[in-house]
Amino acid sequence: MERNRINRLVYSSREQGGFLIWGLCLLLLLLWRYYAPKPEVPELEINQPEVIAWLCVVEAREDSIRLSKSVIRAFNPNFINGSKANKLGLSISEFERLEQYRSRGQWVNSTEDFQRVTGVSASWMGQYAQLFKFPDFILAKNNTTRSSARTPKKTDLNKANLAALQNIQGIGPVLSQRILSWRDKYGAFRRWEELGLVYGINDALVAKLQAQFDLDTTLALKRQNINGLAVSDIAALPLISFDLARTIWEFVRLRQGIDTLEELNKIDKITPQVFGAIQLYLFAMKTTP
User: Fold this and answer.
1) Which of 102, 114, 205, 285 is least surrounded by Cβ atoms within 10 Å, i.e. has the fewest?
2) Whole-number Å distance between alpha carbons of 165 and 173
């Protein structure tokens, strides 16, 4: 038993020769690696153009990554979260005021609203307000509101005093007084064309008055057919006295109606100014029997 165990530990001459050859090969390999000529590796010089160009590309890429992380794009201030608030430099109290405002179902619709709600400083608004992005319908509403606020409400022409009328270029004290006298005598102006009946007021001055004053034209008299009016109806028109109204009425009756208003120019008492008033309020059309 003991003899068999000893025989297992003894290698044959063939096996010993194999181990010897294997050891010699390993030794030769080690000697070759140690003594074999090594390739020369060029030293990397930092100042070489290729190296400098490569370093510039790497640095530019790193800068681009840092910049993309720090750039703040346009945003709707109603949806600022905690991370965004921190990035924008909002204080905890400013962010909480915004959250409380939004939790009540209210919306920030302008830069003024945001500053009022959060209480941020003017310098903060100057830095970030330009990045606020609101829906188009909110922008349209804000523009309309600002336009209305910038446009002062016009004074009613029938309430304008002498000083207000004289502020219009081309209308001095004389014309201003004529406008007021007309208004006192014939009542409120009801259409812009009536200003042309005031002596000395031309179309250019009417346009200037229209640009500065307002006028309620909903009460303007409708034009009436002169062939069906009574004397009192004609006398109710500006610049037409009762006697002139009776003359006009008789002129129309004798002719059993007229076809055009120009026929009234045959009456001596009708001046161009009176005829202008007639054209504003009357028309001529014979009715078929």
Assistant:
1) 285
2) 8
